[in-house]
Amino acid sequence: MIKSLARSLAQLLTAALLLAQTATAAEAQRQPLIVFAAASLTDVLQQTGQLYTKQSNVPVKFSFAASSALAKQIESGARADAFLSADQDWMNYLQERKLIDVDTRSDLLGNRLVLIAPKDSKVTLKLQKGAPLLAALGPNGRLSTGDPDSVPVGKYAKTALGNLDLWPAIEPRLVRADNVRVALMYVARGEAPLGIVYATDAAVEPQVRVVDLFPESSHPPISYPVAATTSASPQTASFLKFLRSDAARGIFTKAGFTILGGGMAADSAPACSGFRFDVSKELQVFASKPREVTATTTVNSAAPIDVNQLYAVTLAEQSKMSFATPPGKSTVADGSYAGLLKVTSPRARTIRVTATEAAWLDVLSGGKLIDSTRHTGSGNCKVLRKVVEFNVAPDQPVVIQVSGSTEQQIKLAVTTN
Hints:
By secondary structure, this protein is of the alpha+beta class. Helices cover 29% and strands 29% of the residues. It has a 6-stranded mixed sheet with strand order 2-1-3-10-4-11. It has a 6-stranded mixed sheet with strand order 12-14-23-17-21-20, covered by helices on one side. Strands 13, 15, 16, 18, 19 and 22 form a 6-stranded mixed sheet that branches. The radius of gyration is 25 Å and the shape is globular.
């Protein structure tokens, strides 16, 4: 009798413990994922999150803001399982501080940069060098975009306007918004006659219209890297994988985003996915042993390099440079590095300049800056970081002007087809 009662009590205790464990596991399953994402992803991620929750029973909570603000919040200790940035710089910022899981990082989406106006505006403009953008603003009008000092869309806008020789005139007339959606709102309300936003933002706001697309050669490719944080919950891997699913891709493409990274799951994406054109030759060159070279600070003494050869380049402090032309990324006070190299005779009409760091890469011929024809980059590639393509006069020497590197030592190659 006593033994039977003891067995019953033991069974009841075991059952209670199993129920408690099951409840605890279920409660953990219901804990929401916290995803920090660029403001331009608001609509598509809300839709994607709902689908993921329906499939997995795991809720997702999003925090949308400028990538810069979100990165700073993560650095300050804010809880986040995943981060989706509107540019590579702010993902790099967290990676340098060891706050993201590098193995989960990949490029997810691409976008385009557009000039917008209120829907009833009569402004017409072709975005090219010397375009009458200032006149289109009128005597007192201002141009709305993200703050170029921190917000990705503003940084892209500054670069594009600079390459079109429009930045000096437009800079005093900027409305520096906290994020791209605020910049969009100013134009939608008619508070700014023109604005620069992403194409996908313009598409969701019926009170604006697109005046023109910025040439893709006027700015670096707009790419959205994604990664889990170093404190991410185990469910985060499942969410990142879902972002590569057919269901998520359908939402992204319908909204106007381009899909990067070959459509593979984020947790299995190979190194060096996400480039916009074939970089197999560059990967082959970067697999070779590099030659060492020290870049110079003046164009007349630019260090000579050969095509289709990998170099380990030592740069100088950017503040000490005598640039042949003002660099795309101007001198800053955070210890940027720069340097000049010379290719004596590329013997090809098309060259590509490839680097392992997110430095600014300019090409000059005859002392004049040559506009790039294509850019591509990938945040998850451990070999290549950035590839820029230029059309040059064959058998004419060209100067490679590197600027804005946060690293003094970089690997660089000039390749030809």
